[in-house]
Design goal:
Elements lengths: L1 E4 L4 H13 L5 E4 L10 H6 L7 E3 L5 E3 L1 H11 L9 H30 L12 H21 L13 H16 L10 H11 L2 H5 L1
Parallel strand pairs: 1-2
Antiparallel strand pairs: 1-3, 3-4
Helix pairs in contact: 1-3, 1-6, 4-5, 4-6, 5-7
Length: 207
């Protein structure tokens, strides 16, 4: 298999962390330079007409896009260690937390960065600064919510690391780099402690 990815992009990092946590090896990575617009070139558009990474090319030549879909495929092909839930009930609750982290935290961070950071102006046309700033304020609302979740548990979806932790961590690291957001600066001690624990894992350092 082949994974089309891009260094420093948060969604490809989610897949790479997922792979490291599961001990998946042997998938060749192909770097797509977003800054140079390679994702909009004819060669990559033939792989994914949405012009987005990551994309997983399967052994039979089919291509699978969208981060969550790729992780679902890898979870099925490499079921252990389990990161998405054992049984329908645990899967449902893990998916709930993963979706909340994706839509309420990750997406708001992405919108803020895309519409306020001058370095992304070439990738996001047009930029809407007021929208980006409003999304930045909502990021802090979501971070306070997650800080509360982590007040009485070690991981986002329960007592072990799951895909929800990977989504939340990659979101926070994206905000850390381009929004200069650190939970401790907002008094979010639970979220900061969780972030620091996850950052020590080999998957966080490898991806």
């Amino acid at each position: 298999m082949k994974l089309y990815t891009s260094s420093r992009a948060p969604n490809p990092r989610r897949v790479l962390m997922f792979m490291v946590e599961k001990g998946i090896a042997g998938i060749h990575t192909v770097q797509i330079d977003l800054g140079k617009g390679e994702h909009r070139g004819a060669a990559f558009m033939a792989v994914n007409p949405m012009a987005q990474v990551p994309v997983l090319e399967l052994d039979d030549g089919r291509t699978l896009a969208e981060t969550r879909a790729i992780c679902t495929y890898l979870e099925g092909k490499f079921p252990q260690p389990n990161l998405m839930g054992e049984g329908f009930e645990e899967r449902a609750f893990i998916e709930m937390m993963d979706r909340r982290c994706e839509l309420q935290l990750f997406l708001r961070i992405a919108n803020c960065v895309r519409h306020t950071h001058p370095g992304l102006a070439a990738l996001e046309q047009p930029q809407f600064g007021d929208f980006g700033a409003a999304q930045g304020a909502k990021v802090r609302e979501s971070a306070r919510w997650l800080d509360g979740v982590l007040a009485d548990r070690d991981y986002v979806a329960g007592d072990r690391l799951t895909i929800a932790d990977i989504t939340a961590f990659c979101a926070l690291e994206f905000a850390r780099g381009l929004m200069r957001f650190r939970p401790s600066d907002d008094g979010l001690a639970n979220l900061q402690a969780w972030r620091d624990r996850i950052a020590e894992r080999p998957s966080a350092q490898a991806a």
